[in-house]
Amino acid sequence: MRQKILITGGAGFIGYHLARYLLGTTTAKIVLVDNLFRGRMDGALKELLKNHRVTFLNLDLTDARAYLRLGSGYDHVYHLAAVNGTGIFYDMPHEVMRINTATVLYFLEWFRKKNSCGKILFTSSNEAYAGGLSSFGQLPIPTPENVPLVIADTYNPRWTYAGTKALGELFMIHCAQMYKFRGVIVRPHNFYGPRAGYNHVIPELSLRIAARVEPFPIYGATDTRSFCYIDDAVRAMVLLMESTKTDGLPIETVHIGVNEETPIRDLAEKLFEVAGWKPKKLQIHDAPQGSVARRLGDVQKIKNLVGWVGEVSLHEGLKRTYEWYAEHPDTAMKGEKIKVFV
Length: 342
Ligand SMILES: NC(=O)c1ccc[n+]([C@@H]2O[C@H](COP(=O)([O-])OP(=O)(O)OC[C@H]3O[C@@H](n4cnc5c(N)ncnc54)[C@H](O)[C@@H]3O)[C@@H](O)[C@H]2O)c1
What we know:
The structure is a single chain. By secondary structure, the protein is of the alpha/beta class. It has helices spanning 13-25, 43-49, 86-91, 93-114, 127-136, 158-179, 201-210, 230-242, 264-275, 300-306, 314-327, and strands at 4-8, 29-34, 54-58, 76-79, 119-123, 182-188, 191-192, 216-219, 224-225, 228-229, 252-256, 262-263, 282-285. The strands form 4 sheets. It has a 7-stranded parallel β-sheet, with helices on both faces. The longest helix has 22 residues, at 93-114. Nicotinamide-adenine-dinucleotide (NAD) is lined by residues 9, 11-15, 33-39, 60-62, 80-84, 99, 103, 123, 125, 188, 190-191, 197.
């Protein structure tokens, strides 16, 4: 029988690319769920929905009644729906708390009752452990999965998101343990690529380059991140979902990312190179309060488990991404204000 796969947050960045990848590599029926809070019903998604194997449900997963329309008996469920994007954490931290917690709570309840043979993948974040880096400073870099999860400052809105991801991990681990379902927690480390929205560092830099902004501002220039191209990222998620090595209890938590630390200033320089344009003057600004200076996930575990390593070089990934943003200079992303945070 044909596999049934559900992707929540399916209109968003990762969800859309994941659905495309699964369409190309499986014969499964794919259901995408999203309330279009941030994802968009744009040309790319409409094109995807022309495939008879894909269905789209416009549902708000913070509403308990929505679950009556989700159906049951999915083989694989990718639970990605959440409010994401650093600017949003500062603009509406209370909504980040409400939405990211309610969607996990209701979703796991639905999953365990309606999908007795299914397996679930939950997207946490590297933000979940980032507070430990800024608070104690002595965590190892690259940072492995098993470090403490720390909320560095409950008064800084930035940490609301990290709090919901830490809670999500706890829900996943202990519900799986209690109800004996299969699952895996992944922590994405700065996935990037086309159609990622406009409220992330690479889209923001790309749009400013395409608009030839002078002088050219760079925020948090010395902060470092590791950037993982979206095609590699969704391949990693599917490998983890399909592997029997992630079927046991307690469920595994796995970093997805690349072992390459890039300062934001170098990232901007690489994008200038890709775009064939360089500003005459740079305006270097501090990162916002609460931004973590260095972040590099240890990605040895995913290599050991499923043999995955990122294959797309930063240069190639930035080239593909810049070209997409140069062709799609639309800054009117619903629910987003354009800010320039890492
Ligand atoms: N992109 C990254 O590098 C990254 C890093 C760390 C964690 N993550 C996590 O991965 C997941 C997907 O991230 P993304 O980059 O695709 O983000 P995204 O914002 O593009 O996608 C999330 C989708 O969830 C939808 N959504 C939000 N609230 C909803 C609700 N109540 N009901 C239904 N749908 C709802 C949004 O409309 C959006 O389309 C998120 O959980 C995010 O926190 C992503």
